Each structure stands twice: as structure tokens, then as C-alpha cells.
């Protein structure tokens, strides 16, 4: 993996996405920090780096997917960044619930049953959104080759939940929240 792109992505996350303070989490808990990855994945340079680093990791893992996708909305910018960077991987988005109109689809975009796919997410805390995407992808008929998140909040212990749901597919996190915290402090933020 291009260590310079990975290091630059970590720096962008630490600068744009990481905040210290008192925060209520979607899991219901509280934390002394918050990571909003969308401020990185929707940033012009952050998006380029996200696409490059995710694509390099997917290639390194040898998953050979046809597409990648995840639960809207954290996965959306990652899916687009990787698809554009690759020029070959298709994207799909998983709705939180099936549409109540039109075709009633839960999977939007790439829809080829039996295709090898990678599930992506921005932050893994409890793993609930990642697991929801894995389940929806399998219910649709995709073969999940791997699962990736940009930042893993280790203290929430979501890794075990995701690994169980993903099995036999592996789960890879590009960074831990501790990696981002250390970089945030090192940069004097």
C-alpha cells in the first residue's frame, strides 16, 4: 500500500474528522471523542485518498470483487470514491429499509446476483450498520468477499460482531480510533 497516501489520509482524518469533547453516540453511549468521517470522505483531497487507500487494500487482500457497497449514508462517499478511482469496480448502496414506492428495492446501483462484493463503512462502533449491509447484500444474492471500514472504534468491541456476521469473509479496518487520536494530538489539534 502506498504508505504516503495512507499517512496523508490519516492526517486528513485527524484534522477534519476527529474532535475531543463529550459526545453522545448513536449506540447510546458517551465518548470523550467523536469521529465524523464524512468531513474527510466528502472533502476533495480526502475523497481521492479514500478511494486510493481502499482500492489498494482491496487489491492487497486479493478479494477480486466486481463491486463494493454499504449502508447509506456513511458508505456512500467511500463507494463512489473507490468506484471512480478504480474505473472498474461498480458501486451499490444499501437502504436502511426497502423503498415503499417504485420497485421497492433495498439495494441501489449494481445488482448482479452471485457477484463478489466488498462491504464498506466509514466508522465501525458496534458494527450494526456494517452487519445490516452484509445481511442485505447476502439476502440479495451477492457473495461477500470482504468487509472494510475506514475507522474502527475499538472500545465499542464491534469487531467481533462484524467478524461473526461477515464470516467466512475477513474484516479489515484501515485505522483505529486510537491511530486517529494519536495523529490528532501529534498535529497539535
Task: Characterise the protein shown here.
- This protein has 189 residues and is an alpha/beta fold.
- It has a domain at 47-176: Rossmann fold (3-Layer(aba) Sandwich).
- It has seven helices and eight strands.
- The chain has helices at 3-17, 38-41, 44-61, 76-86, 128-140, 158-166, 177-186; strands spanning 18-24, 30-35, 67-71, 90-94, 107-109, 116-124, 143-152, 171-176.
- The strands form two sheets. The chain has a six-stranded mixed β-sheet, with helices on both faces.
- The mean pLDDT is 94.
Topology readout:
Blueprint: H1 3-17, E1 18-24, E2 30-35, H2 38-41, H3 44-61, E3 67-71, H4 76-86, E4 90-94, E5 107-109, E6 116-124, H5 128-140, E7 143-152, H6 158-166, E8 171-176, H7 177-186
Helix pairs in contact: 1-3, 1-7, 3-4, 5-6
Order of helices and strands: HEEHHEHEEEHEHEH
The main pleated sheet reads as: 6 strands, mixed
Number of helices: 7
Average pLDDT over all residues: 94
- What is the fold named in CATH at topology level of the domain at 47-176? Rossmann fold
Q: Any guess at the CATH architecture of the domain at 47-176? A: 3-Layer(aba) Sandwich
The level 1 CATH classification of the domain at 47-176 is Alpha Beta
Structural class, judged by helices and strands?
alpha/beta
Rg on CA atoms, Å: 16 Å
Shape: globular
Distance between the termini: 27 Å
Name the strands of the widest sheet in spatial order.
5-4-3-6-7-8
List low-confidence stretches.
Answer: none
Strand content: 25-35%
Question: Could you estimate the helical fraction of the residues in percent?
Answer: 40-55%
Number of strand elements: 8
